Amino acid sequence: MLNLFINSALIENMVFAYFFGMCSYIAVSKSVKTALGLGAAVTFVQVMTVPLNYLLNQYVLSPNVLGEGIDLSFLSFILFIAVIAAFVQLVEMIVEKFSPSLYNQLGIFLPLIAVNCAIMGGSLFMQQMVGTEINNVGDSIVYGLGSGIGWWLAIVMMAAIREKIEYSHVPAAMKGPGIAFIITGLMGIAFMIFSGINLDKLGDLKPKAAEPVNEAVVETVVETVDSEYDIDMAEDQEAEPFDTDVNNL
Amino acid sequence: MKLSKNFTNPLAANNPVIVQILGICSALAVTVKLEPAFVMGLSVTFVTAFSNLLMSLLRNGVPSRIRIIVQLVVIATLVIVVDQFLRAYMYDVSKQLSVYVGLIITNCIVMGRVEAFALGNKPWASFVDGVANGLGYTIILVIVAFFRELLGSGTLFGMTIIPEDWYIANGGFYSNTGLMLFPPMALIIVGCIIWIHRTINKDLQEK
Asked: Model pTM?
């Protein structure tokens, strides 16, 4: 389960490995505060819809579950998006009812989660991973959480960097989306270091003396993760350490 | 009305990907090779065109409160048609595109054009707008895929372009740039396209 979490949050990060949710990622990453809010909402919706769609996939859509010879898997797109849209509508109504201030803060971004590719992508990948990485509801919750947090992490880091970049001299034609794409590319290259994590080793958590090199890699990577979280939470001087990181690569 | 302007505008000056920043989501991962990028572009063109047409026909009969759900159902149905078609006639490409075909549903271009254009215009104009925006998207995908396939694998549409005896393995001086095959390079190429595009169209630059 830890494997699945680290894999979905860092190694196969929704934004850097699959470009999911890029539209709102580019559009909303102008301030850290809204990025945090949207990231939280996306993570919540992701955690809820992936297990729901998992159950739907297992008990309705898979071949021969509704009866011998019935295969509804071609309907999965339409059912998944219906679940997601209905759920987002529900969340919107609940938030509006119980916390109007949060509702006003998130504004238009809340309904837009329904068409965020990260949510739909999460469910579609989950469907592909059934039988290999995901074998029960617990796994699907972990996958939803991991991929949601990965997206959250990415958009907050991006917002922090873009807040700083306001003060630098970006070429006029690159301002706005242009530089945002280049930064995302560089962050993606930085995130490629996570593919050095040896998931099998992490799973049994018993250090083996035979291959010390891999252990070292894992340790440094875990340290990097920690420091990056700290950087995000501190909300200041995020850009510099990360940029140096990229340059050193 | 000015149909021809409707058609040419989204191809360059108001390109959906690099100007409106829509539909990057599901797209860039299919640009490692030209063939899937091309097929993906055409699939999106088909879906955008017909969802625009259908929603434009339905626009007076759908209450605005439930229009998002209606749009999603129309789009999802069209995407299922595309998906089944690809599986039947182009199985290899369909395998390469994997989940990205399904993600056309949440592609912001489709929803964005329905919301911004089809709900307020006549069916034929909406259809043209959908085709043009789909083609504008295809152009960007093909440009990105061109560089990534040429520099990353030395081929175009699967045909070898870089002569075999240039490679170091055959005693030459050349080797493919493996980094081009990784996802971040697609973003950097799009960033460069935006840079060039905005250098030419100065009115798009942000102050």
From this structure: 0.78
Residues 6+ apart with CB under 8 A from B24: A19, A22, A23, A26, B17, B190
Residue A43 to residue A247: CA distance in whole angstroms = 30
Does residue B83 surpass a pLDDT of 80? Answer: yes
Query: In terms of residue numbers, what domain contains B127?
Result: 2-206
DSSP state of A7: I
Checking if the pLDDT of A246 tops 70, the result is no
Q: Number of residue pairs across A and B with CB atoms under 8 Å?
A: 141
What does the alpha-carbon distance between residue A173 and residue B197 come to, in Å, rounded to a whole number? 8
Nearest to B79 among A77, A85, A115 (CB): A77
Q: What are A74-119's pLDDT values in tens digits?
A: 888 888 888 888 888 888 888 788 878 777 777 666 777 777 888 8
Q: How far apart are CA A186 and CA A203, in angstroms?
A: 29
**How many domains, in total, are found in chain B?**
1
β-partners of residue B160 are B155
ipTM rounded to 2 decimals: 0.83
The nearest alpha carbon in chain B to A26 belongs to B21
Q: Kindly state whether B111 is in contact with chain A, defined as any CB-CB distance less than 8 angstroms.
A: yes
Q: Are A150 and A14 in contact (CB under 8 A)?
A: yes
CB B114 within 8 A of CB B71: yes
What are the two backbone dihedrals, phi and then psi, of residue B174, each rounded to the nearest 5 degrees?
Answer: -115, 145
Chain A contact for B30, CB < 8 A?
no
Chain A closest CA to B170's CA: distance in Å?
30
Contact B184 A173 (CB under 8 A): no
> Tens digits of per-residue pLDDT, A18-33?
878 787 788 778 788 8
Q: Which residue has the tokens 């297992």?
A: A58
Closest CB from B18, B77, B108 relative to A78: B77
